[in-house]
Backbone:
């Protein structure tokens, strides 16, 4: 009787090792495709870009597979998740921050926030006025010097002016084409830096004049989203749909994801081609709708821009609080003339994005050049 049990255990153990090994191979291939994402232009070949969205799921799946294989004492297949985790190292470095705040006084505080047209993501019964009042209280609590809003709506001039007075900011600017808004305690100067008018569909650039001797460029961006509906997100999150064929949501989601990657690649190229020269400090902030494993992120880094989250924060730092997990898609980018002091993600959940606040100083070498 003992021998039968032993054989059964051996068979089940062998079957378990085989199944986990197959899962490990799938996870290994996924990790490899994740590693390729930053190097492949989605406008040329889009399909690798999909894996960047699931980096953390793939990463944790490989860790789980490694633990299970260690438990099953499967030495032959143990190398599979180890190789997968090695492939994941570059993505991990971009997606998880070990940075920390500087122990110096900060001169300027800037906030970026996608306000989702002042809709309450969790409480659909909330009115626009209630959401705006919540934002007013939030702004007064954190007191940023400059505010960049995305999806603030195509409000008329008197509405923007009224909101600016309510929060106590002297200067404001808004773009009716893309819904981007600026509110500032410092003078906002319009600058004709962008040579291509198509940029106005997703980005604005202003010069923020702190005083007669100090100023910086501030770009407010909102790149194209995937445009996926709540019903389609629910479809993605339902595991039964993985094995269920769909002629509606499935094809629609794939098409929207593909289109979103391609349009953001075009927007990134257009933005980087039209940036001002490097004689002044530059900050680019907003909702990029792309993860650190994206081609967009890679191109921004190659252009010499630095990610403030990696510099001065810790953890995964997700900025999207909707149903898709662990997505960091909102950013503060900065050039060499900026010294980041602190970066904070505030868990304000009125919108489906979290507001970000960066405090910084302008480096002395810029002041000397001016």
Residues:
């Amino acid at each position: 009787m003992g021998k039968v049990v032993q054989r059964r255990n051996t068979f089940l153990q062998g079957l378990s090792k085989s199944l986990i090994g197959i899962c490990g191979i799938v996870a290994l291939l996924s990790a490899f495709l994740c590693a390729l994402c930053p190097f492949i232009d989605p406008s040329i070949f889009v399909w690798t870009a999909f894996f960047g969205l699931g980096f953390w799921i793939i990463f944790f799946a490989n860790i789980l597979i490694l633990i299970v294989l260690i438990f099953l004492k499967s030495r032959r297949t143990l190398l599979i998740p180890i190789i997968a985790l090695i492939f994941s190292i570059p993505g991990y470095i971009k997606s998880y921050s070990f940075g920390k705040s500087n122990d110096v006084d900060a001169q300027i505080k800037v906030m970026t926030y996608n306000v989702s047209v002042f809709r309450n993501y969790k409480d659909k019964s909330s009115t626009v006025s209630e959401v705006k009042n919540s934002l007013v209280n939030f702004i007064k609590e954190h007191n940023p010097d400059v505010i960049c809003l995305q999806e603030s709506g195509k409000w008329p001039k008197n509405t923007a002016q009224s909101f600016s007075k309510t929060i106590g900011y002297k200067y404001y600017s808004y773009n009716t084409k893309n819904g981007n808004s600026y509110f500032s305690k410092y003078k906002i100067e319009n600058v004709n830096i962008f040579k291509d008018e198509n940029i106005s569909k997703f980005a604005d650039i202003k010069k923020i004049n702190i005083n007669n001797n100090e100023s910086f460029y501030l770009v407010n961006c909102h790149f194209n989203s995937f445009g996926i509906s709540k019903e389609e997100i629910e479809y993605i999150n339902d595991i039964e749909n993985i094995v269920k064929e769909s002629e509606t949501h499935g094809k629609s989601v794939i098409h929207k994801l593909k289109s979103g990657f391609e349009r953001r690649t075009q927007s990134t190229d257009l933005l980087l081609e039209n940036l001002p020269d490097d004689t002044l400090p530059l900050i680019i902030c907003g909702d990029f709708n792309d993860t650190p494993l994206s081609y967009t992120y890679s191109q921004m880094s190659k252009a010499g821009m630095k990610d403030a989250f990696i510099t001065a924060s810790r953890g995964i730092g997700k900025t999207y609080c909707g149903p898709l997990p662990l997505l960091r898609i909102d950013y503060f980018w900065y050039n060499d003339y900026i010294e980041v002091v602190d970066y904070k993600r505030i868990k304000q959940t009125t919108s489906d994005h979290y507001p970000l606040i960066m405090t910084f100083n302008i480096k002395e070498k810029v002041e000397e050049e001016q």
Summary: Residues 241-248, 366-370 have pLDDT under 50 and may be disordered. The chain has twelve helices and 14 strands. The two ends are 89 Å apart (CA to CA).
